[in-house]
Amino acid sequence: HLIKSLSTKESFAEDIAMTIASSGVAEAKSKSEGAIGPVANLCNVALEEANNGEEAVEKALDQTGTIEMATLEKNMTWISLSIAVAPMLGFLGTVVGMVSAFDKIAEASDIDASLVAEGISQALLTTAFGLICAVVLQMLQNAVIYIIDNQILSMQRSSMMLVKSISKKK
What we know:
Blueprint lengths: L1 H4 L4 H14 L1 H8 L5 H12 L4 H20 L2 H32 L5 H57 L1
């Protein structure tokens, strides 16, 4: 849904608001049909409620805005979960590697560094892999949150534009 949200922007709502001012709600509805994304959905809801007054438009925009925000953020929990679990899995691998190293020490009568090197190597590699995964996912999450925040701001500005244009038309 996040990719779809980028297809209509604030400029779309601005265009719809100008159409309302110049040609009326009916023309704006026909212009808005078929558009996708949160801003387009807000425009469609506002235009559907336009004849019911400014309060009805504002209420419909609030409800739709809340739903659109939730839709944009719906899969963020999976990214957060992955960020939390990746280092834990890496540390689990560390423990397994260290247990393996100590098992080899216990079995050997003569302690040699090569005996424990494999276990310690496994321990360090799994820790590194878990941390690398978490860092990459954290960067991805921050990028997605940035896009969502900008989309929400665009939705809020679009809502204000639509309410103003509809209230002026009355």
